[in-house]
């Protein structure tokens, strides 16, 4: 039985060699065996990728997500502090309305507006950070799908005189189609991320305008310095029946409010940095899209190289997400511990 199997395999090898040397050498049939055959490959529309370049696409992804995830991590602390500052404005507005300041109503209204602006800013920062994480995970999923498509055919023969070269062409087209899909999805996600970031920036600018108005009017009323504000608070808190412990707590909150501009500046820097990275990503993707759509610049990148680049990129994205989660947990724990110690 073993001898029969060996003989059968030898016969099949001879038949295969005969097919490659004789049948593929025949007119017309030789066109089917050529790597240039497009019989089974769909026509590529104008402007669509004619070949895949996952190595360069992975480099573009790494650059934009490295910057975006750093910004999303930092925004956790910033949005937390802005939210805390928003919570104190109600008490301050009550105190100001009960004061003897000529512009007390105007100041109180600014405090109310500050509360709304701070709330909106914190929410948009949180949404922006969540959008970054969601985008990263979605792109990672699309990369994994492209890897599965390519990995199914990276071991096929691509010999010019092989009947299997027809299927190699098909696999190459599938890789190009997967590449086009990832490019399209990433372009859409980047534009959505850009829109979300611009909305967050608008809210931060509105908060900045309110802070500027508050600083201007409090300086006019003569309550700009901490000593003057303390005298005002002592009078107001005594009138409202408060005690020294409550006064100290209010002073602590007032100090937090004074730091809001610093937190806002940090948030603005993080958002601006992420938006810059996204804009650069879109420009690099456009350059890559033009290059892979030009048939004259076709480069033969082996399927195994494409697969390796996707696999390495996916590993790096997973590491980035895990590292970001560890940093966020550490920052939240530190902020909660600080709040408990202060109280």
Describe this structure in words.
By secondary structure, the chain is an all-alpha fold. The protein has one domain: Hemolysin E, Chain: A (Up-down Bundle). The protein is 80% helix and 0% strand. The chain is built from nine helices and no strands. It has helices at residues 2-21, 29-33, 54-97, 104-151, 165-220, 226-239, 244-258, 260-292, 303-342. Helix 3 crosses helix 7. The protein starts with a helix and ends with a helix. The model is unreliable at 1-45 and 154-167 (pLDDT under 50).
List keywords for this structure.
343 residues, mainly alpha, Hemolysin E, Chain: A, elongated
The structural class is: mainly alpha
- Under the CATH scheme, the architecture is Up-down Bundle
Order of helices and strands: HHHHHHHHH
CATH topology: Hemolysin E, Chain: A
């Amino acid at each position: 039985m073993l001898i029969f199997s060996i003989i059968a395999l030898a016969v099949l090898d001879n038949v295969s060699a005969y097919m490659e040397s004789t049948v593929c050498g025949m007119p017309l049939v030789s066109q089917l065996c050529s790597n240039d055959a497009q019989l089974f490959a769909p026509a590529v529309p104008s402007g669509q990728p004619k070949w895949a370049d996952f190595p360069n696409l992975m480099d573009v992804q790494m650059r934009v997500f490295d910057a975006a995830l750093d910004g999303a991590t930092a925004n956790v602390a910033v949005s937390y502090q802005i939210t805390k500052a928003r919570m104190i404005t109600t008490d301050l507005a009550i105190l100001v309305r009960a004061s003897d300041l000529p512009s007390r109503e105007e100041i109180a209204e600014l405090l109310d507006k500050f509360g709304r602006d701070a709330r909106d800013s914190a929410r948009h920062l949180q949404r922006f950070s969540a959008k970054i994480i969601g985008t990263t995970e979605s792109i990672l999923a699309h990369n994994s799908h492209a890897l599965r498509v390519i990995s199914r055919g990276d071991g096929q023969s691509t010999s010019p005189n092989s009947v299997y070269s027809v299927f190699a062409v098909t696999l190459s087209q599938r890789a190009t189609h997967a590449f086009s899909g990832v490019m399209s999805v990433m372009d859409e996600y980047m534009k959505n991320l850009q829109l979300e970031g611009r909305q967050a920036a608008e809210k931060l600018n509105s908060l900045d305008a309110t802070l500027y108005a508050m600083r201007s009017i409090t300086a006019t009323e003569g309550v700009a310095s901490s000593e003057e504000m303390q005298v005002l608070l002592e009078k107001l808190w005594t009138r409202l029946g408060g005690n020294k412990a409550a006064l100290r707590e209010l002073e602590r909150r007032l100090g937090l409010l004074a730091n809001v501009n610093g937190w806002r500046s940090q948030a603005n820097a993080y958002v601006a940095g992420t938006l810059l990275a996204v804009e650069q990503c879109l420009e690099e993707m456009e350059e890559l899209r033009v290059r892979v759509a030009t048939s004259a610049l076709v480069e033969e990148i082996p399927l195994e190289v494409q697969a390796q680049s996707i696999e390495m990129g996916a590993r790096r994205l997973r590491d980035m997400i895990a590292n970001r989660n560890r940093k966020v947990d550490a920052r939240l724990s530190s902020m909660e511990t600080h709040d408990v110690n202060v109280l």
